[in-house]
Amino acid sequence: MPRVTIKEIAQRAGVSKGAVSYALNGRPGVSEATRARVLQVAAELDWRPNSAARMLSGARTATFGLVLTRQPETLGNEPFFMQFVAGLERVLGPRGHALLLQVAHDLDVEMTTLRTWSAERRVDAVVVVDLRVGDPRVPLLRELGLPAVVVGDPSLAGGLPCVWTDDAAAVEEAVGHLVALGHRRLARVAGSADLGHVQIRDLAFAAATAAAGVSALTLHTDFSGQQGGQVTKDLVLGDSPPTAVLYDNDLMAVAGLSALNEAGVSVPEQVTLLAWDDSALCRVTHPRLSAVGHDVVAYGAAVAERLFQLLDGSPPDPVLAHTPRLHERASSGPPPGGPVRPRATTGGRA
Amino acid sequence: MPRVTIKEIAQRAGVSKGAVSYALNGRPGVSEATRARVLQVAAELDWRPNSAARMLSGARTATFGLVLTRQPETLGNEPFFMQFVAGLERVLGPRGHALLLQVAHDLDVEMTTLRTWSAERRVDAVVVVDLRVGDPRVPLLRELGLPAVVVGDPSLAGGLPCVWTDDAAAVEEAVGHLVALGHRRLARVAGSADLGHVQIRDLAFAAATAAAGVSALTLHTDFSGQQGGQVTKDLVLGDSPPTAVLYDNDLMAVAGLSALNEAGVSVPEQVTLLAWDDSALCRVTHPRLSAVGHDVVAYGAAVAERLFQLLDGSPPDPVLAHTPRLHERASSGPPPGGPVRPRATTGGRA
DNA sequence: CTATGCCACTGAACCGGTCAAGCACAGCGA
DNA sequence: TCGCTGTGCTTGACCGGTTCAGTGGCATAG
User: Fold this and answer.
1) How many angstroms separate the CA of residue A326 from the nearest CA in chain B?
2) B65 in helix, strand or coil?
3) A115 and A139 inside one domain
4) Number of domains making up chain A
5) Which of A155, A162, A188, B145 could potentially form a cystine with A150 if both were Cys, beta carbons 3.0 to 4.6 Å apart?
6) Quick one: which H or E segment has residue A300?
7) A158-207: per-residue pLDDT in tens?
8) Which of B284, B294, B297 has the highest number of chain A CBs within 10 A, making it the mutation to test binding with A?
9) In terms of domains, do B202 and B102 share one?
10) Are residues A287 and A174 in the same domain?
C-alpha cells in the first residue's frame, strides 16, 4: 500500500512540499490558483495527513483522552458513560478528532495513565470524570501541565475548566416536589460518599429537607443493585420508615422497587421512589419510575465543545451544561394517609 | 516543559542516539554495561518515548481501534459494551497499548472512520463488533489491508481472524432446559434481524425447537425495552400464548417481566422468562431473571490477546472464547398445568 | 604479521509533515 | 533608473525516534 504523501502531491502539482503544506492547511503563502490545483490533486489521490507526522512537528495529536475508573461491572450498569461518550464523539468526529479511552480499576492506575499520555504526548487534552472530594488528579494535571476539562461541579475542579450540571438545584426540585406532595420523612440511597457529585447531592438534600422542616436520612452504597435493594428494604421495613426514597442512580431504584415488591410494599401507594439519571431502565419497570434526569448525550457534547475552546485558549471558566429535571411517572405520589394538602404540583412530564 | 528525548540520554550516557535506541529497545548492538547505563539514565530522567516519533519511523502506533455503531441510547442500555471494553483494556493497558474509540450512529459513518484511521495510520489494528449478515466492513478491511479481529461467529467473519462465543450451543442448552421442564410452546424476542449473532440464534432456536418437536415463534425488535415489553404482552396475551420466552438481551426481559406483572400474569407460574447476557439487571428484578450469560470481561480480554497474536503474525484461525451458560434463577419453572414429567434438571447455578 | 571476523558503537538517512528564512520577480513611487 | 515592498514560492531545518551502512578495536586464525 504505497501511502500518499505531500511529496507526491508536490510533484504532481509541480510545486514544493512547503507550498503544498500551506495550500492544504488553508494558510496564506500560495495563490488561489495554486491552492485549488493542490487541493484537487490531493483529492484525486485521496490524500490524508499522516497523523504521526503531524503530531511530531505540530505537537497536536487531534486526540483527547478519557479515563473511566470504576469496576467493569458497575461501569456496564451505568448507561451514563456510554451515552456520555457518544455525546463526546458527536462533536469530536466531525472535527476529525479521536478519543483515546482507558478503563481503569482504581485511581492510581488512572493517574499512571494520565502521566503516560502526557509524557508520550498521546493526547492534546483529557476529560476527567467522577471527581472525588479533594481529587488527586487535579494537582496532577496541574503538575503535568496537561490541558483538561473536568466533568463536575466547579467546587471540585480546583480552578480547572469544568462543565457541570446543577445537581443541587435538581435535588432541591425533587425535595420540593416530594414535600409538596405531603411527604415528611424522606430518605436518600446515595452512591459512594467519596464521589464529589454524591457529596454535593448529600449537602443539597440535607439543606433542602432542613429548610422544609422534614426529616431526612442518607445512606451510602456502592451504586450496585444488590445494595440498593438491601438498603431500601432496611429503610422501608425499619422503624420510622420514609414515605419517599430518592436514589443516586437508576439501577438502585429498580432494585429498590423489586425489593419492595417482593416484600409486599406497594409503590407509590405506600412509598414513593425517585430514580436518578432517567435512563431507559425507568421506563421498563412496573410502575414506571419517576426520575431526576437530563440529556447525557448533550452533556457529553458540551464537554467536547469545551475541549476545543480550551485548546483555543479560552479562560477556564466553568460552563453550566444544564440542570437535571424531575420527570414524573408512576412511582411517585402522595404519602399513605393522603397528602397534607391537595396535590400542589403543576403536573408531570412524561 | 522541556521534554526528555533520547538525544539527552545519549549525551548524558556518553553514547550516540542510535546506541540509546538499541539499548532501550532491548536489541543487540550494545554491551550489557552500556545498556545498563543507558537504562539507568533513562529511568533517572523519567524518559518516555514520544509516541508520534515512534509511529512515524516504526509504523507501529501501539493503538487499537474500536467503533461501536448503535444508537447512543441503545448503547447505554447494553452493559455488554462497557464490560467488553473493560476486558480489552485489561490486556492492552499492561502492554502499553491504547484504545481509540468511536461511537457511530450508522454503518456508513463507521466505514468512514475505518478508512480514516487506516489512511491516517492511527491504529495498528481494529476490533469489529456487531457483525451483520454480509457485513460490508469485511471486504472494506480486506481492501484497506487493515488488520482486524472480528468479534463474532466464524461464519460471519469472511475469513478474517475472529473471536466468538458459541451462541448456538447456548440456545440449544436453553431450549433443552425448557423442554425438559415441560414447555411445548416457546417464543423468542430477538434483536435486529440484520445482526449476525441474532440470526445465528434464530437458526439455532428454530433447529433446536424443531428437533424437540415443540412449537416456536421468533419476533424481532430493536432491542429496546419499549418493544421488548410490547412484544411480550402481544405474545402472552394473544392466541396460543407461549409458556416460555427467551430474550436476546436483559433489558427486554426486564421490560417483558414488568409488562406481564402489569397485565397480572405471574412469572414463572404462568410464563417462564429467560434473559440473555446476565448482567446485574437480572438480579434486581422480582422474581430474579434466569438468564443465558457469560463473562464479557473475559471475552474482551480474549479479543485483546488475539489482536497481539495477529500483529505477531499468527494465522487467522477463529478462537472460541467460550460458550454462554444458562443461569437458573426464579423466572423459570415448569409450564402451567405442571411439568409433563417431574423436574428433570440437575439444579441451577446462582 | 597479516587476514578474518566479530563486537560495540557512530553517523546519517529516513519517516511525513510544519514552518522560518530566503529568494525572485512584479508593481510602484521617487 | 534605482530602490522598496509585497506576493508567491522554494529551501532546508526540525520534530524524536528507528535503522542501516559503516568504522575502529580487538581477538583469533592462518
Assistant:
1) 19
2) strand
3) yes
4) 3
5) A162
6) helix A296-311
7) 999 999 999 999 999 999 999 999 999 999 999 999 999 999 999 999 99
8) B284
9) no
10) yes
